# Entry
Amino acid sequence: MTKPTPDPRHTLTLRDVSEASGVSEMTVSRVLRNRGDVSAPTREKVLEAARALGYVPNKIAGALASQRVNLVGVVIPSLSNMVFPEVMTGISEILDGTGLQPVVGVTNYLPDREESVIYEMLSWRPSGMIIAGLEHSAASRAMLARAGIPIVEIMDIDGDPINHAVGISHRRAGRQMAEAIIAAGYRKIAFLGTQMPNDFRAKKRLEGFEEALAKAGLTLIDREYYSGGSALLKGREMTAAVLTRNPDVDFLYYSNDMIGAGGLLYCLAQGIDVPGRIGLAGFNGVELLDGLPRKLATMDACRLEIGRKAARIIADAPEAAQVEELFPTLEPGDTIRKS
Amino acid sequence: MTKPTPDPRHTLTLRDVSEASGVSEMTVSRVLRNRGDVSAPTREKVLEAARALGYVPNKIAGALASQRVNLVGVVIPSLSNMVFPEVMTGISEILDGTGLQPVVGVTNYLPDREESVIYEMLSWRPSGMIIAGLEHSAASRAMLARAGIPIVEIMDIDGDPINHAVGISHRRAGRQMAEAIIAAGYRKIAFLGTQMPNDFRAKKRLEGFEEALAKAGLTLIDREYYSGGSALLKGREMTAAVLTRNPDVDFLYYSNDMIGAGGLLYCLAQGIDVPGRIGLAGFNGVELLDGLPRKLATMDACRLEIGRKAARIIADAPEAAQVEELFPTLEPGDTIRKS
DNA sequence: TCTGCTACTGTTACCGCTAACAGCCACCTT
DNA sequence: AAGGTGGCTGTTAGCGGTAACAGTAGCAGA
# Structure
């Protein structure tokens, strides 16, 4: 319970260290950054003084003078989604070796908020930006395009990137899942997903899904949306609703694993034969699924790898814009009949 | 797929806007910050020019000149924990109205990493710092103490804060849970938790728990630790292991809800009578629990409120150090016998 | 002995913005 | 008419570092 400032003096600057060690500020700066030649004894003296004083460099001044900022902005829609923390892990993993540091901004799926987060971040002149999705306001795109730094849009590649992009085709992912379901013999298929008008990737998956259904002469026999609340619980509730409305449905396609898991638990509790009577599938490949009584069919979104590749692009800052497509694998689990 | 810099010129500065609008840089600065008196026509002209050019202010220069940084450092052990995203929500909620902005740093429960994250953050001279836990290296404590900004340690209050603190007593939480369990008539109690040597809060809960057991003349009849992997799955596995070793155990106390949920699913699948034959309890009150077939007993850690209060302290920057204790409520759910 | 080079340290001029203060003008006031 | 007074705009001097360049000393080679 000490006071925050035990020492009444001003915050320390290079000058303080310089005076304490008897060399110029420039030499102190060199020692602290490990740049240029400094004799061993001087270096020792300086480090000693800096340590004794508890000096912490001022990066604001440093960045202004050197025109270099070791920050990478990362803009994502949500932290509670389970998927973005994993992307962050991939990013940190790569950035850790480069002296670059990620700074996270959260948009809550709101375009306005995204715009202000981007603006705020750019005003700190980061070395690069990583942003989820390809859909941004015109102003956001313009800001990013003229920032003069590498921009990487992640998660999705179905669209026109500002600069670089790393992700999967959600449209294709939806299509693939539909094809697998149809091949397994299911015909009365329902969709259950988020209401969120701004979850463009879920929307694209559904588009691809319906496209493939149409090609097989099928249409969704029901759809159910939710927003907010406990995803697991919503999964149960929505599943109950669909099964009541359409007792003859034979497949439930969920827009994410969490609600899929809720649905699975519900079906099992009802004693429904899964995957015989009803099949289930989600999307994402969250590790949570490993602990369920039965393994939910899903598709891995390559989150870790997306984070890694995006960070690598920022670190390398290649001249030419690149688009890296990753290919998610369909994991049939135990909730789709073996055809 | 445009190039990142459509315009070959240097990045824009106040001077560019000033020239474009025919007024001094100072006036532009005033308009852009909404500070001081500027005539309506001038303001219009400046805003127009800034918008047309796509000017984004340089906060680095601004911060250096004004000695004010609208950043709040938030240091947490992990993002995938489910608990910290909620704390972040509380923080953002309050900070949103103040012009302050949170910047997250993740330590992965490593003291060394915590130290460097703190150092890095302080070097940006934030307006305040929010840090999880009371246990930090001597160097970390020293840096924070002499930073001259409000420091709020969150989650825990069993210890000696550097400055402010907001949290619950985990020792007391453990004790309370033990008392409830004993009161319900359980006697053969086992603990299942994380191995993590640096999860001090889980450790304190266990201490409090054992303390209360001891007072009733009981000791844990078994304990099982894990690290890494899917918590839900680990919960199943550990539960199986404990039940095999000690078929007569009658209560399983989990260090978090996720493994508790795994244990619950396992017990239900085995047809074990919960809470008759075996009782279960976790810790945290994660919303996931709402979707389980049966509601797991738990204790709410007040995460949202902790985030809010911490942010409020930073925003108000009170002179006197304050310690705010919150009191978690025990939610018996359906997995403890009604005594 | 003088030159040239290397190893080390210091000096100067900013980086882009803002605090503080200094005008200037129109309009009152007395 | 002299002296406020407020509204608006500009000037100056940094903020705390770093790039670029300028010494200085010591030593090897010619």
Q: What stands out?
A: Confidence is low (pLDDT under 50) at residues 1-8 of chain B.
